[in-house]
Amino acid sequence: MVPSSLYNLSSVIGLDVGSNLLHGSLPPGIGLTLPNLERLYFGDNQFIGPIPVSLANASKLLYIDLGLNNFSGPVPMTLGRLQDLYWLNLQINQLDGDLSFITSLANCSGLQTLSLYNNQLSGMLPDSIANFSTQFQGLYLAKNKIFGTIPAGIVNLANLRLLSIEMNLLTGIIPVNFGNLQKLEAVGLNSNKLSGQIPSSIGNLTRLFKLVIDGNDLKGSIPSSLGNCQNLQELYLSENNLDGTIPEEILTIPSITKLLLDKNSLTGSLPLNVDKLEALWQFDVSNNKLSGEIPSTLGSCTKLEFLHMGGNFFRGSIPPSFSVLKGLQELDLSRNNLSGQIPKFLERLLFLQYLNLSFNNFQATCFWWRKKTGKNLAPTSSLGNGFLEVGYAELLKATDGFLSNNLIGVGSYGSVYKGFLNGIGTTVAIKVLNLEHQRASKSFLAECEVLRSIRHRNIVKILTVCSSIDFRGNDFKALVFEYMPNGSLDMWLHPNETEQHQFRNLSLIERLNVAIDVACALDYLHHHCEKPVVHCDLKPGNILLDADMVAHVGDFGLARIIHKDAINYSQTPSSSLVVKGSIGYVPPEYGTSGDPSTYGDVYSYGILLLEMLIGKRPIDDIFKDNLSLHQYAKMMLPERVVEIIDHRLLIGGIHEITAQSENNEKMSNNMQDCLISMVRIGVSCSAESPKERMEMKDVIAELQRVKDFFLAVGQQVGN
Ligand SMILES: *[C@@H]1O[C@H](CO)[C@@H](O)[C@H](O)[C@H]1NC(C)=O
Ligand SMILES: *[C@@H]1O[C@H](CO)[C@@H](O)[C@H](O)[C@H]1NC(C)=O
Ligand SMILES: *[C@@H]1O[C@H](CO)[C@@H](O)[C@H](O)[C@H]1NC(C)=O
Ligand SMILES: *[C@@H]1O[C@H](CO)[C@@H](O)[C@H](O)[C@H]1NC(C)=O
Ligand SMILES: *[C@@H]1O[C@H](CO)[C@@H](O)[C@H](O)[C@H]1NC(C)=O
Ligand SMILES: *[C@@H]1O[C@H](CO)[C@@H](O)[C@H](O)[C@H]1NC(C)=O
Q: Do 529 and 632 fall within a single domain?
């Protein structure tokens, strides 16, 4: 509970206890005891009870955030007295009652954003919304029980950028002059009971990038004026009663990525000019009454990953141009009148996960997909996606039949073999996925998806992939990497007894170099890729060393590409069941509900750095009873750091130094400074709170500074 004395700090202007595990209710007199309050942030906690009416007495309030709690009861009518109110967020609570308080909010002349998303509010949306401030920009009312029509006056809100009233019980039409809302960027009206036609004035919304009106009862044809919305990225018109043909105009919007028109009664054939849709990623026209041939121009939409055209009257064959749709993951052409042979190129679509050709007139082809077994060795071919594909037989030969002598690593998703690949004339590491493991296929796809788009000196290079069938007819998937003769960092840090002669002690400068290499790889993944990539499984076993001891980050089987929406207005819950890394290296927030984030990688990096300096794994026996590697290191900072440093480092280090210098006391003091700086970085990266962790670019700069200092001193003393 928040101590009640906090509510008596009458001079307080900002009170932020957001994103904690606080509970209890707000005191009824909060607005009287905190008369100077401007910002109240209580969001993302477990508060219950009503929203106090007295809030309206804190007349300077600008921001109110009570979202993501369990507040209940009605929204006080008095909030309209807050003349300066700018931002009111009550989303994701249990608020009920009707929407009459909205009328009072028309008095808040500076109101910019109102979110009541995901509550139990019912009643009609009052006409008075037309009198909202002209500053008003964002209205979020989705996921309530609002009924009645959309007030015609809503079109007065000249600065409205975001309208989200989906998942309610709204009836009636979309206002005819909806196009007056010239500033609109995203519209969600889906999953209501709206009827009538889509107003053609929508074509005037040239800033629109997301229009979601699926799951209503809309009739008539798709207005061709939509083609004027040249910034549209996502158009959802599914599950209505739309008829007529698909206007050519909407197929000329170059920015469109998702075009969903399924479950309507659209007729005619698909326009031929679909080749303008360069960004198209998901296209669904299934369950309509479309006819004619599938335009071969669809093959120009090379970004397509989901193509659903089932349940129509398409005839003819699958266009050969589909062979270039290398990213296809789902292709559904079922329930049409397609004929001809099933094209062979489908077998080369590496990412295809779902293929449905059922209920057509395709002719039998004799198990073409089995032909990729060893005896019928397809020549190595370029897939155009940056990978060269390799056959099963070739890998079998490269590894002497996956001989155990060639086994260089075993992980949960598969085994890694060393082999010589004739095709490229070099020694390689072949990671064979254990497809009996449920996640192995996913991990294969994740790794392919990430690795095909990244290149960096400190990231293992993928040479080729194999997605095939073994001699027994079972699926076989493998990834082929450049071979790293010096094995993993784990082997160097923790050699077992038989390996000790093989892996000499790594000197401080070598460890520092590895730390910088890994930091560079992470900085690249987080900030310099097209979309940020989170590795999710950084640990010494996944850091590989080449012949020159340069470190390369490997194993992207758990990696995630972060797709950021411009406006994240429909939150999708994250799955807490997803595997997110290895024990000891997983940041604390992943244990609760945190999605994989770049901060998480920074945490793992911090642990890795401490492990490299202290020589103990985070899961070592001494780290239990609430003492973690992080706390252990933090506790010893700064004077006692030397007591916990990997003793091999001190012996090696001091020995190296005394060999070249008499001034070893000065030197070991300098070395101690370096170690303290590095442990500090490790501790800071592995801070409990994600936001306190360092940025990788700062880590690189700091480590580089330590290295320069270390080398400069070495030079000086050596001379
Ligand atoms: C608080 O606001 C209410 C109206 O909402 C008003 O009647 C009351 O007088 C105010 N109290 C004080 C102490 O200003
Ligand atoms: C809004 O303002 C009008 C006139 O300025 C006033 O009559 C009305 O009581 C105000 N409503 C609220 C809830 O403050
Ligand atoms: C909007 O405000 C005007 C003037 O303040 C008023 O006459 C009108 O009734 C209000 N409209 C609604 C729908 O509340
Ligand atoms: C679009 O806006 C223009 C004025 O900006 C107007 O003349 C035209 O009628 C509008 N179009 C539609 C379809 O509403
Ligand atoms: C399907 O195609 C065949 C020829 O391939 C044709 O005879 C038949 O009439 C077509 N059926 C429909 C429903 O279009
Ligand atoms: C393939 O499509 C048909 C018809 O649309 C459907 O009945 C069937 O369930 C689909 N098959 C799979 C495996 O999803």
A: yes
CB of 426 within 6 A of ligand 5: the answer is no
CA distance linking residue 700 with residue 515, whole number of Å? 9
Who has greater pLDDT, 7 or 567?
A: 7
Could you tell me if residue 672 is inside a domain? yes
Q: Which of 420, 452, 482 is at the close of a domain?
A: 482
Catalytic residues: 537
Ligand lying closest to the C-alpha of residue 109: 2
Domain CATH code at residue 647? 1.10.510.10
Task: Determine the Cα–Cα distance for residues 536 and 468; give it in Å rounded to an integer.
Answer: 28
Same domain, 417 and 498: no
Q: What is the pLDDT of residues 569-606, one digit of tens each?
A: 333 333 333 456 788 898 888 877 677 889 999 999 99
- Give the range of the structural domain holding residue 447, as residue numbers without chain letter: 385-482
Pick from 559, 330, 603, 301: nearest CA to 453: 559
The whole-angstrom distance between residue 300's C-alpha and the CA centroid of its chain comes to 27
636-659: buried (b, 16+ CB within 10 Å) or exposed (e) per residue?
A: beeeebeebbbeebbebbeebbee
- Ligand 4 centroid – CA 204 distance (Å): 6
Last residue of a domain, one of 461, 482, 503: 482
Which of 9-13, 253-257, 261-265, 590-594 is predicted least confidently? 590-594
With H, G, I as helix, E, B as strand and everything else as coil, classify residue 258: strand
Worst-scoring range by mean pLDDT, 91-100, 263-272, 304-313, 706-715? 706-715
Measured from the Cα of 77, ligand 2's closest atom is 13
Q: Is the CB of 33 under 6 A from ligand 1?
A: no
Asked whether residue 610 is assigned to any structural domain, the reply reads yes
Cβ-count burial 532-554 (b if 16+ within 10 Å, e if not): bbbbbbbbbbbbbbbeeeebbbb
Number of domains in the chain: 2
Q: Which ligand gives the minimal distance to the CA of 225? A: 4
Query: 557 pLDDT band (50/70/90 cuts)?
Result: confident
Contact criterion met (CB below 8 Å) for 263 and 242: no
Q: How far is the CA of 336 from the centre of ligand 6 (A)?
A: 12
Ligand 3: centre distance to CA 618 (Å): 65
